[in-house]
């Protein structure tokens, strides 16, 4: 009789132990991140580009495609190599679904890059977005960022090609010898790693040569766990993240003397890991709607 009681209590304690372990693992070791959204944060709405980015024609209206996106009005002021100033009224568009963060920009009067040769190498116009993923106020490796590049033929003033690059906050040992935002593919190449999986997926661009208005739009994954060592943005379903973010617009050149302006502050050339003054961006995956303005989930 006593043996049966001992056996019964042993089984109960075993069940209790397994339940406790499961609770600890689920709620402590594998807990969901649920940040509190601070006052003044930019809340990214649920939405999908319509039509999808990969189905966009050569010419499109980003105002229609990103009709329900968060819009941020920015005036970029870029000092050029001849000390002239290029003022570029801009709108940045942000939206998300369960899988992607959609990032777009319309840059009025940006025109082609003056560093381009009339009949030679065309230098790109570049749109950057960077994230302080932990929202700590200090950048640490690898963080997460995206860059879209568009080249505009000179003197034809027509869009030539667009491309993208993942970005990471990392020490660059050759040219800068400092912590910088580096294209992830360049970092992988520098360490001899042939990994080619990146977070940015679809992208599109449009250029109106009558007004010099350049439009860029791309989708970047909210989670690619297989590349967590080079991309810290790894959201899980049901989570809510608040991150610091910074936007830049730049003209590249054949040298490292790029021309850049940032929002809310210019940071290029400062080499600072201080992100404490960056505005806050909130992405909430805990409340998915059934539809996105008629586009199914």
Element-by-element helix/strand order: HEHEEEEEEEHEEEEEEE
- Rg of Cα set: 23 Å
Largest sheet: 8 strands, mixed
CATH architectural grouping of the largest domain = Sandwich
Describe what this molecule looks like in 3D.
The structure is a single chain. The protein starts with a helix and ends with a strand. The protein has 3 helices and 15 strands. Strand 14 (291-292) and strand 15 form a beta hairpin. The protein has helices at 2-29, 62-65, 184-190, and strands at residues 42-43, 70-79, 85-96, 100-107, 124-132, 144-153, 158-172, 178-183, 200-208, 213-221, 240-251, 259-263, 280-284, 291-292, 295-296. It has 297 residues and is mainly beta. The chain folds into 2 domains: 1-31; 34-296, Immunoglobulin-like. The strands form 3 sheets. Strands 1, 5, 6, 7, 8, 11, 12 and 13 form an 8-stranded mixed beta sheet that branches.
């Amino acid at each position: 009789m006593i043996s049966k009681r001992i056996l019964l209590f042993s089984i109960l304690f075993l069940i209790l132990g397994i339940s406790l372990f499961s609770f600890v693992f689920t709620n402590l070791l594998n807990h969901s991140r649920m940040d509190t959204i601070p006052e003044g944060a930019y809340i990214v709405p649920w939405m999908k580009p319509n039509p999808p980015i990969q189905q966009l024609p050569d010419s499109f209206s980003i105002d229609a495609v990103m009709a329900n996106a968060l819009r941020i009005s920015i005036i970029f002021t870029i000092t050029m190599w001849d000390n002239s100033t290029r003022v570029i009224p801009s709108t940045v568009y942000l939206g998300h679904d369960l899988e992607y963060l959609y990032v777009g920009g319309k840059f009025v009067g940006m025109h082609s890059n003056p560093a381009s040769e009339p009949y030679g190498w065309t230098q790109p116009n570049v749109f950057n977005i960077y994230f302080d993923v932990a929202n700590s106020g200090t950048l640490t490796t690898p963080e997460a960022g995206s860059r879209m590049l568009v080249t505009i033929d000179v003197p034809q003033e027509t869009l030539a090609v667009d491309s993208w690059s993942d970005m990471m906050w990392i020490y660059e040992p050759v040219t800068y010898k400092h912590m910088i935002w580096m294209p992830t593919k360049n970092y992988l190449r520098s360490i001899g790693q042939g990994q080619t999986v990146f977070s940015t997926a679809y992208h599109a661009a449009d250029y109106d040569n009558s007004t010099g208005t350049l439009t860029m739009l791309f989708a970047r994954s909210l989670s690619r766990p297989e590349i967590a060592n080079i991309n810290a943005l790894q959201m899980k379903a049901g989570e809510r993240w608040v991150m610091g973010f910074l936007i830049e617009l730049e003209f590249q050149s054949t040298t490292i003397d790029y021309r850049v302006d940032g929002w809310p502050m210019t940071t290029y050339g400062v080499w600072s890991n201080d992100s404490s003054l960056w505005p806050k961006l909130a992405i909430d995956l805990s409340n998915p709607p059934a539809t996105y303005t008629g586009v199914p989930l």
